[in-house]
Amino acid sequence: MLRTSAGILAAVGVAAAAAPSSASAIVGGSEVPAGKYPAIANVVISSAFGCTGTLIAPNWILTAGHCSSLTGGLGIATPLAYPPSSFTATVGTVNASGAGGERVSVDRVVVPPSYLLTAGFDTSLLRLTKPAATPPTPVAGRGYEGLYAADVLTDVTGFGVTSEGGDAPARLQEVPIPVVGDAPCAAGNGSFEARTQLCGGYAEGAKDSCQGDSGGPMLTETRGGLRFVVGTVSYGDGCARADSPGVYARVAADTLREFIRSNAPAG
C-alpha cells in the first residue's frame, strides 16, 4: 500500500489493481518537538492528498515518486508528473496546519525516467521558485553507507496517520525504526529490489510509517552529529504489521543519489 494520505484514492480515482496496498502516517511514534526537524515539508497535491518531504537544498524538496507522478490519475505507471502549480508545501513547522512555517511554491517537478509504480525508483524532486530560509537536511552519499546498514536505528518522520485507516495528527510525528537487511526484506516483500529500495521496521510490527508519510525521510546521524536523509517512505503491507517491514526509497545509494545529484547538486 502506498503511503500517501487516504484522500488520494477518491481524489484521483486510481483503480485498486493499479497499486499495491499503501501506508502513509507514523504508527507507534511521538510528537516532534518544535525545531527538531525544520527541513521536514508538508506537501499537498492538487488540494486533494498529502505527502511528506524533506528540504534537501535551499530550493529543492525530496519526496516520493508516487506523490508527484500522474500514475494515480491515469491508472498506469508513468514518470509523467503533476504540473508544478498542483503543489503547495510548508517547511519549518511541526504543525500540520502550517502555522508558524514557511510556505513555499514549486516551479519544476522531476520524477526519475525509470519510475514505475511497483518497481522501485519511487522518488521525486520539487524545485522551489526561490530558496527557502529554512535550513535543509542533505541526502547521504558515498562514504556514508554505514548510516543505513542492517540494524542501524533510524528516525522516520511524517505528517501521516497514527494507525492504519486512522486520522492524521495535528503535529509532525517521529518513530525510531531499525533498517532491515535486504534478504529478510525481500522475503517479506515480493516486489522488493535492493538497488533503489531498503526496508525498515520490527519483526513484531507496532512501529512504522503509514498513510500521509509518503516521501517522508528516514534520518540518521554521524557520530559527529551530522544528520542525513538515507531513505524516503514508499509503501508497505498496511501499517505496523508483524513480519512486514515498510519499504523506503534507497536515496543515499548510487542509483537514486545520482538522480538527486544531477538535478539538485547541493542536496
Summarize it.
The chain has two domains: 7-24 and 38-136 and 255-263, Beta Barrel (Thrombin, subunit H), CATH 2.40.10; 145-253, Thrombin, subunit H (Beta Barrel), CATH 2.40.10.10. The chain has 267 residues and is α+β, with helices and mostly antiparallel strands.
Description:
Helices cover 12% and strands 28% of the residues. It is an alpha+beta fold. It folds into 2 domains: 126 residues, Trypsin-like serine proteases (Thrombin, subunit H); 109 residues, Trypsin-like serine proteases (Thrombin, subunit H), CATH 2.40.10. A 6-stranded antiparallel barrel has the order 8-9-10-13-12-11. Strands 2-3-4-7-6-5 form a 6-stranded antiparallel beta barrel. A hairpin with a 2-residue loop joins β3 and β4. About 7% of the residues have low confidence.
